[in-house]
Amino acid sequence: MTDLTGKVAFITGAARGQGRSHALALARAGAAVVATDCCAQIPTVPYPMSTPDDLAETVAGVEEGGGRGIGVVADVRSRDQLDDAVRQGVDAFGRIDVVIANAGVAQGFPEEETHSPGEIWDDYLAVNLTGAWNTIQATAPVLVEGGRGGSVILINSTSGLKGMSRGDARSDAYTAAKHGQLGLMKAYALELGPHGIRVNCVHPTAVATPMIENPAMKAWVEHNLPRVPSRFGDAMHAGRLQPEEISAAVLWLASDAAKHVTGVSLPVDAGFAVV
């Protein structure tokens, strides 16, 4: 079993879905958890986003399992809010060892479009790409100063490995941002490597979370599936994965078992990217 006893994980987008799963998995392995989330609705996102109650439920789950955790409301679009969350985490636990840049927003078709393509593009890049950069920027100094190395894990997507856009602004921005995260990962793997800090991407396929299981995403899939059916299959015919299956890969990358793994794109997609 992976042992992260004594380590501290800083996780964005931790109120529900994959982020919550990662928080619980790392806590079970012994890590203390700083769980952050914006806990608010972004107007251009066509499905319900997380709430403060969701974040509290994540922290409660960590504690019920015998772990230590705090929840901090912080929007990854705001460097100031992330800096404050990092300070709260260090004040509570004294260090940060693992960073999971999980926060993201996904494509989908609303019942009625009320936003311009430019508004959608700006919001989606701000969360999915700038948010990942802000997360690294806010946490890297703490990792470096700690002098113990560390692991930074960007939760990417199979959309970062193959083109998934069909010309709508949300899909364009999501795909562009996820490809951009790859460049970010490679740049910081070089920058932070001399400090023993590893930086990697995990690329899940569709995962059974509220981000995927909602009417807006269903409408998007139903629109695109007849047009490009080959883009929606996977080699293992697995369908949607469970969050815990992604967390298993995250846990490995966070552990000493992956201490020489950096600059890597790790698909957890049942072969989606090769179809």
Automatic annotation (TrEMBL):
Protein source organism: Amycolatopsis methanolica 239
Q: Which UniProt keywords apply?
A: NAD, Oxidoreductase
Q: Name one GO molecular function term.
A: oxidoreductase activity
For this entry, the protein name equals 3-oxoacyl-(Acyl-carrier-protein) reductase
Q: Which Pfam families does the entry mention?
A: adh_short_C2
**Upper lineage:** Bacteria, Bacillati, Actinomycetota, Actinomycetes, Pseudonocardiales
InterPro entries noted in UniProt? NAD(P)-bd_dom_sf, SDR_fam, SDR_subfam_1
The family note in this entry says: Belongs to the short-chain dehydrogenases/reductases (SDR) family.
Q: Which domain of life is it from?
A: Bacteria
